[in-house]
Amino acid sequence: MADLSQLVKAYDVRGVVPDQWDTPLAEIFGAAFATVTSADAVVIGHDMRPSSPGLSDAFARGAASRGADVTRIGLCSTDELYFASGRLGLPGAMFTASHNPAEYNGIKMCRAGAAPVGQDTGLADIRALAEQWMQTGIPAGAAVPGTIGDRDVLGDYADCLRSLVDLSGMRPLKVVVDAGNGMGGHTVPTVLAGLPVDLVPMYFELDGTFPNHEANPLDPKNLVDLQARVRETGADIGLAFDGDADRCFAVDERGEGVSPSAVTALVAARELAANPGATVIHNLITSRSVPEVVREHGGTPVRTRVGHSFIKQEMAATGAVFGGEHSAHYYFRDFWNADTGMLAALHLLAALGGQDGPLSALVAGYDRYASSGEINSTVADQAGRTEAVRAAYAGQPGVTFDDLDGLTVSAADWWFNLRASNTEPLLRLNVEAADDAAVARIRDQVLALVRG
């Protein structure tokens, strides 16, 4: 019997196939999803993992057993599934484990209009039904089962994204794209078709065993091939997508990484030019440059906790035009408040192609501070070590504290955030300061306190 406490996470279902879950359980999840969302119809997509077609088909059978008509869009990126949910007005399910290794798979679920399904918005109810039906079997469903049909939305998805960015004035660009054998290899050629782009593809073959490197661009080792190819080919920009292609990372013409905070600030400036005075969401470990740029362009920055559910909640509550996270998730009001790395990539290409300078110069104004990146420490007493850090900085002149998400300690020319992992005995440290020396000094001080 599957242990759903290990399988159902805060925002999705994720685990090893078939050790932790399999097609019979996927069918139960499909029935529970249709029941909890009261759906007359649902849309389902999947990534390139070997287990994805079988799991998604089982989920479809479960949903249909409860009377829901199922539209299968087949191979797609996660943001393409969000597009289908938004455009068709249907609850959706995406079968992917994002950047996790090949033996994993999962389900990202949403309500109609790409509204998120998390623990507080239906996922706990889905889990409860699934646990019940694992014991009793799925009860007799609708008098008339739903239908299961197929639809290709890739072209409509690409048209939608291109309609949201003015790409008309672009100069020709050489663009290297590393899809990591993930879904970017499926979506990028269609999205970029017709643009003045000399595309240099890397690892576009769909292969859920990830033979070249992990499809996780957040880890610097997975950008090495892209950086080398950009330098070898004299490209203007390099783009790297994760396995389900909802996150996008960039490197400049020198092969140097572009901070997701700089991308957030650049896209925010572009969105504010089109939407004067709008609100922009950023999580609390993005750079200080993000709220600075937002204010400089007449917008209102709103700071949130880390995690897409918090970003999406604030997007909906404030009517924000855009939101960005340090992890390279980018959210757009005009894309149903959902995250799409591909749309952020189009903004980068439009900005770069709309002027004559290199990408390094373009982003320099948005990348104003030095940072440590996220540093993990294994600790037995997360709360105790956090309080030790708080005590060490208490009473220092000009130092302030806040507890929006973990502990953030701020001074005039530096800040750091220390957050406990929800799933592992880890404390996560992020430091930003005026220069590398200051980052190193603060980092070492805090790690000495955390690691004892």
Automatic annotation (TrEMBL):
Xref: Pfam families: PGM_PMM_I (PF02878), PGM_PMM_II (PF02879), PGM_PMM_III (PF02880), PGM_PMM_IV (PF00408)
Class of the enzyme per the UniProt entry, highest EC level: isomerase
Gene: xanA
Record family assignment: Belongs to the phosphohexose mutase family.
CDD domains for this protein: PMM_PGM (cd03089)
Domain Alpha-D-phosphohexomutase alpha/beta/alpha: residue ranges: 6-132, 156-255, 265-369
The organism's place on the tree of life at top rank: Bacteria
InterPro entries per UniProt: A-D-PHexomutase_a/b/a-I (IPR005844), A-D-PHexomutase_a/b/a-I/II/III (IPR016055), A-D-PHexomutase_a/b/a-II (IPR005845), A-D-PHexomutase_a/b/a-III (IPR005846), A-D-PHexomutase_C (IPR005843), A-D-PHexomutase_C_sf (IPR036900), Alpha-D-phosphohexomutase_SF (IPR005841)
Enzyme nomenclature, EC number: 5.4.2.2, 5.4.2.8
SUPFAM superfamilies per the UniProt record, alphabetical: Phosphoglucomutase, C-terminal domain (SSF55957), Phosphoglucomutase, first 3 domains (SSF53738)
UniProt entry tagged with the keyword Magnesium: yes
One function term, GO molecular function aspect: phosphoglucomutase activity
Upper classification of the organism: Bacteria, Bacillati, Actinomycetota, Actinomycetes, Kitasatosporales
Cofactors that this protein relies on: Mg(2+)
Keyword Cell membrane attributed: no
Keywords: Isomerase, Magnesium, Metal-binding, Phosphoprotein
Protein name in the entry: Phosphoglucomutase / Phosphomannomutase
Domain Alpha-D-phosphohexomutase C-terminal: from-to ranges: 374-448
GO biological process terms, semicolon-separated: carbohydrate metabolic process
